[in-house]
Amino acid sequence: MDYVKGDVDKALFFVRKTIENGWSRSMLLNWIDTGLYEREGKAITNFKTMLPEPMSDLAQEITKDPYNFAFAGITGRYNETLLRSQLLRNITDFLIELGTGFAYVGKEYRLQIGQKEKFIDLLFYHLNLRCYIVIEVKMGEFDFQDVGQLGGYVASVNHILKRDDDNPTIGLLICKSKDNLLAQYALESSSQPIGISDFELEKLYPSKVDGMIPTIKEIEEKLK
Fold this sequence. Notes:
Layout: H1 8-21, H2 25-33, H3 36-39, E1 44-45, H4 47-50, H5 55-61, E2 67-68, H6 80-89, H7 91-98, E3 102-113, E4 116-126, E5 131-141, H8 144-160, E6 170-177, H9 180-188, E7 194-200, H10 216-223
Parallel strand pairs: 2-7, 5-6, 6-7
Antiparallel strand pairs: 1-7, 3-4, 4-5
């Protein structure tokens, strides 16, 4: 209760999570520090209309917004290829951030669709939902066409990989930034279950303290 500042709902959330996942004390404190309570289940999705109950509720719960990719260790210039590589280089941390139940299937997963080859950024299977999850990582700002591309991948996985006892495939777009209203309109136009979230990377120092850290010269002058 001390760590969550007397917020009973937040405390009960972490009690439930600790029981479900068997977290140690250090793991619990880590999730509190990363703002899990404020992030979990917050992706903009169309799951309510595209998935049957209770799968729609369970699918919403496995999302986060934003995703915390600080573990990737990227602080300078980067592109989508580098980000994907760093996420998989730290696959254990990546799976922890995604949440319980995610099983890694492949990176740049190849699908042969007619005469065309298509490559999915990241493909997972969720053991609890019993469905494939297609994840696309986008460097820039979200736009309408991103949902169309991801929806095509989701439909393709349903036709090519999904088995009879699997639930419908879910798409998850994780982008650098998004306009929530634009994302909502895009999802209303889609016939596939898709979620849209942001991601964040750790910064060495927040911009508000730029110029406040003394230089070597300033330290030497003070010592004199």
